[in-house]
Amino acid sequence: MALASLAASLLLPIAAAAARSRRVSLVRCRGMASSLLGAGLAAAGRVGVVQMTSEAASAGVKFLCFPEVFSFIGSKDGESVKIAEPLDGPIMQRYCSLAKESSMWLSLGGFQEKGLDDSHQYNTHVIIDDSGEIRSSYRKIHLFDVDVPGNMVYKESRFTTAGDSIVTVDTPFGRLGLTVCYDLRFPELYQCLRFKHQAQVVLLVPSAFTKVTGEAHWEILLRARAIETQCYVIAAAQAGKHNEKRESYGDSIIIDPWGTVIARLPDRLSTGFAVADIDLSKVEAVRTKMPISEHRKFDSIWKTS
């Protein structure tokens, strides 16, 4: 069975109760759709996380967020390029059908979008609305080219072309600011999303942080981005060991505009989901009581320098 058909068939139980409230669910995928491409017995054993996704729908979820590389994680360099598809290809179109059938918005972070040539892809964050239409897409700007201490060398740019556009999208949950994983380390992007593009409510950070960097910086960076932008931050994360070379930190998390963690899984490696309500009035209250948008000086300094 193809990845798109298999993943969608596993996720279809979402539909039963998806439209009952304006709640946001953040899903941790420990190899869920990411491991389905080579679907054998090991992949089939991961159906349990999908059952938990159905439970999230029963809780009234209206917006479902997936982590980076949700559709595939390869074990060898260059494998993801070989399976990359355009946004109108069969994998993404199946998720569009799923969103429509479920009456649910989807945040699909880190999709392997086919690039300009056969040796490159884009790492693309896609937002699909509840009618099954692609509302917006963001190509990851900051590529992960690092030598992680005590871990391994990563060079995302070998097979991935960086994006060059900042993206927001208006939704029933407010104006969303789209980012992916390593973008988290560049606060100027989030400042631009808030103060230049008026991201109102949610900054989405689908990720596959390494275990080493996650232990050191994951929650700190996410809470900092929430505090300095006065936005909700939703960070869906890959978790656990994907293959002999790659392990993700996990710890999917939802943070409010005051920097308070309002939802997370019981431990960082648990499969399942976390659910929180997005309260627009809280965003306005935080911004009114601490009006940093009125106190910012750098815009005027930059214009005169």
What would you note in describing this structure?
The chain is α/β, with parallel strands linked by helices and 305 residues long. It has one domain: Nitrilase/N-carbamoyl-D-aminoacid amidohydrolase (4-Layer Sandwich). The protein is 30% helix and 25% strand. The protein contains 10 helices and 16 strands. Helix 1 packs parallel to helix 5. The N terminus is likely disordered.
Strand order, sheet with most strands: 5-4-3-2-1-16
Please write the CATH class name. Answer: Alpha Beta
**Main sheet summary:** 6 strands, mixed
Envelope shape = globular
By CATH, the architecture is named 4-Layer Sandwich
- Overall structural class, as computed from helix and strand content, comes to alpha/beta
- The H-and-E topology, N to C, reads as HEHHEHHEEEEEEEHEHEEEEEEHHH
Low-confidence stretches: 1-21, 30-54
Continuous helix count: 10
Can you give the helix content as a percent range?
25-40%
Radius of gyration: 18 Å
Domain unit count: 1
Please state the average pLDDT score. 79
Span between N and C termini? 59 Å
What's the CATH H-level homologous superfamily?
Carbon-nitrogen hydrolase
Please count the beta strands (DSSP E, at least 2 residues each).
Answer: 16
CATH topology title = Nitrilase/N-carbamoyl-D-aminoacid amidohydrolase
* β-sheet strand percentage: 25-35%
Organism: Leersia perrieri
InterPro entries: C-N_Hydrolase, C-N_Hydrolase_sf, Nit1/2_C-N_Hydrolase
GO molecular function, one term: hydrolase activity, acting on carbon-nitrogen (but not peptide) bonds, in linear amides
Pfam family, one: CN_hydrolase
